[in-house]
Amino acid sequence: MTITHAFLSFAAVAGLLTIIPGLDTAIVLRTALAQGRAAAFATALGIGTGGLIWGVAAATGVSVLLTASHTAYLALRVIGAAYLVWMGGRMLLEALRRSPEAADAAATAAADAATASAQPVRPRRALPRAWSRGLTTNLLNPKIGVFYVAMLPQFIPAGAPHLLMGAALALVHDVEGMIWFTGIILTAHTARRLFTDGRVKRAMDAVTGSVLVGFGIRLAAARS
What we know:
- Keywords: Cell membrane, Membrane, Transmembrane, Transmembrane helix.
- The chain crosses the membrane at residues 6-29, 41-66, 72-93.
- This protein is mostly helical.
- The protein has one domain.
- It has helices at residues 3-18, 23-35, 37-68, 70-97, 100-111, 123-139, 142-151, 162-186, 188-195, 198-221.
């Protein structure tokens, strides 16, 4: 795997996960609707900062592990591939099992998450508090750490500097996230209607789940 191929492959996987509505998306959307664009962008930057911290921390640990043991590298690679298949499989099952009515209710609840934390505050303190809210939300989400620890080894080519490559991949994910959040913030009301449409959520789960399972199988079968 070349460095260019690694970046493109990771960007594809991370991009798919970025657009799946979750807690981060819900907080940014709610902030945009309740406090305006400036606070929403500050929240998004806080989330991005947290993601970068997670990525660098994971890259540091992975760098030590990969340098110490080739066997540990292979084990972590298998775990990462299994993680992708498991995550994609869950999305496929959810898309197949969930009725349109249940999907509508779940999506509406997600879009309304963190309502209390998005209450207006004094303008002078609004932006720092919004940034802090985004940062804290991301740092306290262990799924982000699991994602980086499981995924980074899959996209570090042989001979590449592990720490530098891992940090660069985390930055790619960060940039994708900011692009996504920018679109949500600029079209907040339209985005809310989209994410509360259960049929759209089911379709996104089905497509993303299929792609993630495919990536997982490909990574597990790859030689290097």
